[in-house]
Structure formats: C-alpha cells, structure tokens
Description:
5 strands; 10 helices
Amino acid sequence: MLKELIYKAKQFVDDVFFFDISLHNNLYVILTLGFGKQYMAIGLSSHWNLEEAMCKSLEEWFQFFGGKVSKYYLYEKNNIDYKMAHREYKSNSNYVHYDPCYYSNYFFSTFTPSKLKESFGYLFERSISIDYREQSNHRSVSFTNCIKEISEDLQLDILCVFIPCVLENVPAKIVKVLSENGYPHMLTQWLNPRDYVFSRVFNQKEFPNEGKPIPFP
C-alpha cells in the first residue's frame, strides 16, 4: 500500500521525504514532506508500526491536493486545456486568500515549496536514512500499557476530555487529549517553552525557534 501511495504522490510532487520525529521508542511519529516545482505538501501521523505510520501520514498529506490537477496535466503543453489550467493555477497562486484558520492562513500565505523545504532544513541535515522494511514488524501492542509508559517516561499527565456533539443523531464521540505538562497549542508567540515540564524532560536549554510560527497548517 505504501508504494501505491508514493506513486500517487509523485503525480503531484517530484520528491517525497519521511522523517521519524518521535520522542519515544514505543511510537512512530512520521512527518511527510513533498516538494515539486509548484506543489508542496505536509502530513503527520503516528502508529505503533512504522509502515502504518508512513501510510497514515501520506493519507493526511493528500489533503493538500483535493482540488488540484496532476503536475503532468499542469505542465503538458500539448494538452488543449493546459493554458486554461496553468492560468487558473497562477491566478490562485497570486491570490492571497484569507483562511479563518490562523495556522493554515499563515502557512499558505508564507511558504512556497522552496521556503518550506528550507524551514525544515535541520531535518535534512541531521537525519540518517534507514530501510523502513527492516523496522516495520507488526507487533502486538497493549494500547493502555504503551500510553502509560510513554506518559511516565515523558512526564506527560495525559488527560482525556469528552466533548458532547452539538449535532443530534450523529454516531460519533469527540475526545480531546491534552496534557498540562505539555504545550497546549501551536501558537508559539504565546508560549514560553521554559514554563513547561515537557521541555525540561530533555534537558533543553536553548530554543532556536522560540516564538517562530510552526510551519504546519
């Protein structure tokens, strides 16, 4: 399944990169980045199994392309619809659309493929390549035990808050997971990392990105 997803991803971008940014050995947290001449995308997901985490991260990654055409369609000058599609894309690229979501509004009005790749330069500089197939062993996991171990090791007091659905007859339950010892949100301008237990777990004293918006929509 992963190979199929990567093949589909290459219909929009030229390069796809996976980074394991997990802070605990019991859980894979995969950040997926994709870059092309015009398109860019980012996805994030986690799982006990590496390949599953990569697939789920790519599935989120594809949300960037809900209304987009393939890069081959966009650049195929022999296609009779090329000029119209290219004109529409350029028009959309130059139009600064206000998104009511603060994070996505900042992201799409700030980053281009090259700027996004540059902002994650530290991952490219400090990461090592591995063969995911050697790490993707399907293991039996006790969800409760693993979460307990992770929370104890990282000193995160995990809280689950049930949020009643405002719509009637919807067969879904909404639960927000948070920690008073961790960062409560992504708005870095309002956060002092020194105030949180989570920062001290790793004996971190320097924060080079302090106050800078996170490049994630």
